[in-house]
Specification:
By secondary structure, the chain is an alpha/beta fold. The chain has a domain at 67-108 and 233-443: Rossmann fold, CATH 3.40.50.1100. It is built from 19 helices and 15 strands. A 7-stranded mixed sheet has the order 1-4-5-15-10-11-14, sandwiched between helices. The protein has a 4-stranded parallel sheet with strand order 8-7-6-9, sandwiched between helices. A two-stranded antiparallel sheet has the order 2-3. α6 runs parallel beside α8 (167-175) and α12 packs across α13 (266-280). The longest helix is centred in the last third of the chain and has 17 residues, at 384-400. The protein is globular. It starts with a strand and ends in an 8-residue tail after the last helix.
Length: 451
C-alpha cells in the first residue's frame, strides 16, 4: 500500500504547458487603463521584460524551460505525490485521496515555480530591482528568495493586515534580503491617497499592487513581478500538474476530480491546466476551484472588464471580479484575498469547464486540523480550502457508496501561519459571507470598456 509517489530530477518537466491553444474561444483583449484601448507589448515594457511578455501572449502550446531555471527547480522538484490513506480511514470513505505537496519548496509553497523564472528573465534583461506585492506572504518570500539567487534587489509591499498577522513571512523576506513595506504606505502616491481616506486601512492586494506597479513604473532600473493572475504566471505553475499526471500513472489511477484552492488562480491552474488538456481531448475529469466565502470572486463576482488594482493604474482585464476597490474583512485569516480571478480561469469558469465553490473559513480550518491530525502535515490556511473541497468530495463518495479518485494541490505548509491556528482554537475567527449587495455596488465602479 504505497503512500508516496516520487519522480527523479531527470523527470522535472522540460517545458511549461500553455493552455491558451486549448481555450474555448479567443481571449478577451487586455485594456490599457489610460487609453482604454488594447495594450501593446510596448505599453507593458516598463513593467515586464520582453521574454515574459512573449510568454504572456504566446500561442504556442509548449514553452521550453531554460536550463538555468531547471537547475534551481532541482532544489525541490519534482515534488511528491501522497496517497492520504490515513485521512481516508478517518473519513471512512471509499474514495482514494491524493495530494501534490508543494510545501517542500525552500519558501514553503508553490510560488517559487514562477518566482524563479521571473527573476531569471529579469536578470537576463538587465533589471536591477523587482517591485512586487504580497498578501499572505507566500509570494513575497518566494520572490525575495528568487531575487537573492539571481542578484536582484527586491521591494515587497505587503498587505498591512498580513504584515501584522504573519510576522514570520516578513522575517523570511528580510532573511533573503528584501525590503518589506506595509501597504498602504506613504512611499507611493497611491498609498498616500488611501491613507488620506482611511489612516487605519488594513490594505488589500489591489492596493499593494497599485503601490508596486507605481514603484516599478517610476524607476528605470526596476520591473514589476506578479505572483498570480497573469498568463505567464499560470504557465510557469504547470510543472505541478505535469508531474502529478506522471505520478498518478505510478499510482495506477486517474483522478475523477482535480481540486485546488483559488485566490488569483496560480496554484489551482498549476495543477488543473495539464488535466484540462486531457479534458479537451475527451477525458472525463471534473476540475473544481475552492475559494473563501469572504472573497468569492468566482462564485459571487461579475464576469466583466475591471482594473487589476485599486488605484486604476494596472491593465484592465476581463475576469470574475468583486470590484477593484474590494477590501476583504480583517477577520479573514485564510489568504486568497484578491478581488479578481485570472482571466484564463475566469473564461473557463464562464464556459462551464471549471466548477467553482466557496467555503467558509471555519469549515476550512476544521478540515485543515483534521488533515494535519491524520497526515501529520500542517497546511497553509490557503491550502485548507482545497482540503475542504477534497473532504467534501470524499464524504459525498461515502454517502453514495462509490469509489472516487480525488486529487488536490496542497500548495504550501503552515509553519509560519500558526497565529491563524491559534486564533481558530481560541475562537477568534468568524465566518463572513460577502454580501451580494456589495457586488451590485461594484457594478457602478467598473471601467467603461467598449469591446
Amino acid at each position: 500500500m504505497e503512500t508516496r509517489f516520487l519522480l527523479g530530477e531527470k523527470q522535472i518537466p522540460t517545458h511549461w504547458y500553455n493552455v491558451i491553444p486549448d481555450m474555448p474561444g479567443p481571449l478577451a483583449p487586455v485594456i490599457h487603463p489610460g487609453t482604454l484601448k488594447p495594450v501593446t507589448p510596448a505599453d507593458m515594457l516598463p513593467l515586464f521584460p520582453g521574454a515574459l511578455l512573449e510568454q504572456e501572449m504566446s500561442p504556442e502550446r509548449w514553452i521550453r524551460i531554460p536550463d538555468e531555471v531547471r537547475d534551481v527547480y532541482r532544489l525541490w522538484r519534482p515534488t511528491p505525490l501522497h496517497r492520504a490513506h490515513r485521512l481516508e480511514a478517518a473519513l471512512k470513505t471509499p474514495a482514494h485521496i491524493y495530494y501534490k505537496y508543494e510545501g517542500v519548496s525552500p519558501a514553503g509553497s508553490h510560488k517559487p515555480n514562477t518566482a524563479v523564472p521571473q527573476a531569471f528573465y529579469n536578470q537576463q534583461a538587465g533589471t536591477k530591482r523587482i517591485a512586487t506585492e504580497t498578501g499572505a506572504g507566500q509570494w513575497g518570500s518566494s520572490m525575495a528568495m528568487a531575487c537573492s539567487m539571481f542578484g536582484l534587489a527586491c521591494t515587497v509591499y505587503m498587505v498591512r493586515v498580513s504584515y501584522q498577522q504573519k510576522p514570520y513571512r516578513k522575517s523570511m523576506m528580510h532573511l533573503w534580503g528584501a525590503e518589506v513595506i506595509p501597504s498602504p504606505s506613504d512611499r507611493t502616491r497611491s498609498g498616500r491617497k488611501i491613507l488620506e481616506q482611511d489612516p487605519r486601512s488594513p490594505g488589500s492586494l489591489g492596493i499593494a499592487i497599485s503601490e508596486a506597479v507605481e514603484d516599478a513604473a517610476t524607476h528605470d532600473d526596476a520591473k514589476y513581478a506578479l505572483g498570480s493572475v497573469l498568463n505567464h504566471v499560470l504557465l510557469h505553475q504547470t510543472v505541478i500538474g505535469q508531474e502529478a499526471k506522471e505520478q498518478m500513472k505510478l499510482a495506477g489511477e486517474y483522478p475523477d476530480v482535480v481540486i485546488g484552492c483559488h485566490g488569483g488562480g496560480s496554484n489551482f491552474s498549476g495543477l488543473a491546466f495539464p488535466f484540462l488538456a486531457d479534458k479537451a481531448a475527451g477525458k472525463e475529469v471534473r476540475i473544481l476551484a475552492i475559494e473563501p466565502s469572504s472573497c468569492p470572486s468566482l462564485t459571487k463576482g461579475i464576469y466583466a472588464f475591471d482594473f487589476g488594482d485599486t488605484a486604476e493604474v494596472a491593465p484592465i482585464a476581463k475576469m470574475y471580479t468583486l470590484g477593484h476597490d474590494f477590501i476583504p474583512p480583517g477577520i479573514h485569516a485564510g489568504g486568497l484575498r484578491y478581488h479578481g480571478a485570472a482571466p484564463l480561469v475566469s473564461q473557463l469558469v464562464h464556459a462551464g469547464i471549471i466548477e467553482a465553490r466557496a467555503a467558509p473559513q471555519l469549515a476550512c480550518f476544521e478540515a485543515a486540523v483534521q488533515f494535519s491530525r491524520a497526515e501529520g502535515i500542517i497546511p497553509a490556511p490557503e491550502s485548507s480550502h482545497a482540503i475542504r473541497g477534497a473532504v467534501d468530495e470524499a464524504l459525498r463518495a461515502k454517502e453514495e457508496g462509490k469509489e472516487r479518485v480525488i486529487l488536490f494541490n496542497l500548495s504550501g505548509h503552515g509553519h509560519v501561519d500558526m497565529t491563524a491556528y491559534d486564533d481558530y482554537f481560541a475562537g477568534r475567527l468568524e465566518d463572513f459571507e460577502y454580501p451580494s449587495e456589495k457586488v451590485a455596488e461594484s457594478l457602478r465602479r467598473l471601467p467603461k470598456v467598449a469591446v
